[in-house]
Amino acid sequence: MNRVFLIGRLTRDPELRYTGSNLPVATFTLAVNRNFPSQSGEREADFLNIVVWRKQAENVKNYLNQGSQVAVEGRIQTRTYDDQEGKKRYITEIIADNVQFLDTKGAKDNSLNNADSNFNDVTPNDFPNSVETTSVKNDPFSDFGSSIEISDDELPF
User: Fold this and answer.
1) How many domains in the chain?
2) What whole-number distance in Å separates Cα of residue 52 and Cα of residue 115?
3) Domain that holds residue 84
4) What is the tens place of the pLDDT at every residue in 80-103?
5) Do the domain assignments include residue 18?
6) Residues facing 49 on adjacent strands
7) Is 65 a domain residue?
8) What is the pLDDT of residue 66?
9) What is the rounded distance in angstroms from the CA atom of residue 72 to the CA atom of residue 98?
């Protein structure tokens, strides 16, 4: 079985191209944090090349930019080619079947400008049509008391 699930942030704006048969294809690099610190105690990340096809490729280009957080579901694919010097080169990529937008340009900009933002001013128009949204004005967890802070830094690994 070849299946991968990743959550990370884009390291650059997506690039959109079209094949000879006019099929859209977008590429971007995803930075995915490792679950454990290095020997020096610093957090490290892996930088993975993502390829997205068809309408989802156009949505990625239109709604995401550098720093956007996404969840990617897909498969790992390795391809080879011979470079100009005749050496065989290998490229490993994630071919995305599904890209879920965990924040958008508008929501990300809003959260950067206001750290305490509760996103009440985000509307369904800020999200692509393929993503279901729910109203954040009626908080279903409002009766559960005060909020708590959870951080990966507190994990024992």
Assistant:
1) 1
2) 31
3) 4-103
4) 999 999 999 999 999 999 999 998
5) yes
6) 29
7) yes
8) 93
9) 6
